[in-house]
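Re: the multi-chain job from yesterday

Posting the exact lines I submitted so nobody has to dig through the queue logs.
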Amino acid sequence: MKIVTLLASAAVVGAIGTASNAQDITFSYDKNGWEAGFQALSDGAGEASGLSITPQLQTPTDRYQAFVQSSIAGGNPPPLFTWWNGKQLESLVETGELADLSAAWDKAISEGSFSEVEKAQVSVGDVPYAVPLNVARWPVLYSKAAFEAAGIAQPPQTWEELIAAADALKAAGYTPFNAPNVGGWMGLIWFSELMIRTNPDAFVGLTDGSVPYNGPEVQAAFDIWVDFYERGYFTDPREQDDTRFFVNGEAGMWLIGEWAAGVLETKGMVPGEDFGAFIMPTVTPDVENSIIVETAPIVVSRQAVEQNPELLQAIDYLMSPAAGNAIGEANGIFNGNLKAEAPNAIVAEVNELISTEQPRGIVRWWEAVPPDLQGDLVSQMGAFMLDPTAENAQQVMNDMEALNADYWSRQ
Amino acid sequence: MNSPAIPQLAPSILVEARRRERSAAVRSGRVALLFMAPALLMVSLFLLAPVVFNIVLSFTRWQRFSGIDEFAGFTNYERLFGVPYFSEAVLNTGMWVVGALVLPLAFGLGLAMLLRGLPFEETFKSLFFLPRVLAPTAVGTLWYYVYAPHGVINSISSAVTGQPIDYGWLFEAGTITPAIIFTFVWQTLGINMVLLLLGLAAVPRDPIEAARVDGASNWQIFRHIIWPLLLPTVLVVTILNVVAGFTAFDLLWVMATGYPGQRTLSLAVYMYYETFAKSSWAYGAAIAVVLSTMVVLVSWALTTIQSRVEERIR
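And the result, structure tokens for all chains:
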């Protein structure tokens, strides 16, 4: 009798446990420092869907990636998690484990919260598989005090004005550009920017193997990069505090994602008052105006949606202006929602620039390039920054192309 | 006088005795196995099974989300020899093994000899041992700022020479490995010294005093008496240092974070990079197999030498 009672109790506990597990959704992410934002999004999504959604931070990024990949390889994907767009998203979609979010996107676009531009950033083929957590454009931040001290009246509109501004800053005792290589990945920033300012199509071609890394297109970008170093336009790339020279007033400009405005705010700089933003002009007027766009997507597993159809209501919430405002207020991050309020003056300024100049949005190199090539190529860019001579540039271009050609020949 | 005849046992009794002997041995074997079972289970679950799993993985195509069930033969091992990163990593690991073996051993032995019998010996021992209790990541962060372009070394050099010096010790291919090995020596010197002091304490005084009476010099006493008797301890220290050299990771991970060629600084770092940063699980497993094989072979050779030395001393 006792055994029967025990078994019955176990069955009830098991049933309760299973039922409770079915309602518990973990929201996994690796964005250290964004805990308040993820808590706010989880609360809002939980309220909208009736599910219990719990944010779970896992760092560092490589451990997080390992967790997601091994979970998927083991047939048990996390229900709701952040990932990267571009080729990273493509390889994830190939597993067949992600839910198609077309319906949620159709609704959000019809309500005016998002447009086809944002949808394209998280689509593979024509199918959207994610919602944006963060949409960051990459403008040049400039110190208003430095510009004023150097006698620069307004942000540069042409390449000649950019060079003149850099020279004026140098003459006034500033280093024109803060250009660190913290974490070993920041070499891609100037490489990408100089590519899109000289030939944006070639930049896109680099990421699909159709343009070589040692051809004339890349050579043109490296020539400018070498020239800028020779002119003394950049800060020491060995500095491991990426904000240091901009915050302490040694550097006048910083080419970086607009999310950096929130970081600078924590270091005492007021966005819009102490620094502003502009889109770097193209080297020649005939080059199409463009801007690098970095998108951090949130994806949802197909399996989780099948088990908890309410998750789709959580997705609707994540695409709402309320979610945009929640993450904006918590972490100063813009998720691309057109109806959400800009979280700070820099985002508002970039929104304004985008609507006036209508630049072409280009997926950031890190997300656009095949994952196998990311680390190997970006370390070459970092190697150039440590020895920025024309001779080393040639060596770096040849080494990058050797790696690139080897990769594409195996596809 | 005839010796008494040894009584012969009947064959059936002998057979029975042997049977009982075997049965007792089996019983005692079973009991031993029972006592060993928890340890065997732990070792099998947490050591042997992962090792076997890793070896199996190295023959698959697992990368990122797929390929774990696809057999790749020796492809991952062939790839090792086709990329320059691997040979660079092997070369740097070789530097680490030699550096981590010779320097802490030589300096540790020198210090042990120097400190033995000195006033405040215990205080000095504690001071030299202190870095060993710090976490390697803390040590790496501390020394990063010693070597930084505007760090301690360059600041002192600038003050001495009167010239601005901002040499990137951790950003130049020629200095990064020696700089980090030096940090390793700083941290491990103390434990080497303590182990060797224990060895020295076990060396008997009589032969040393006898040799001194016979007019032997300090060097002759060290060379012919102390060193041979200290050799078993030296071999233990050698094994520990060689394994540490092969598996050098934490200091390299922390201190070389801004160096573009970080992955090639040791085989352990290269393995981590391929496995976790590039998600090449199977290839990373192959690197782990090669690294482990190297460590096992060298450790086996050293323990064999150690056994022979101990036998000779006995």
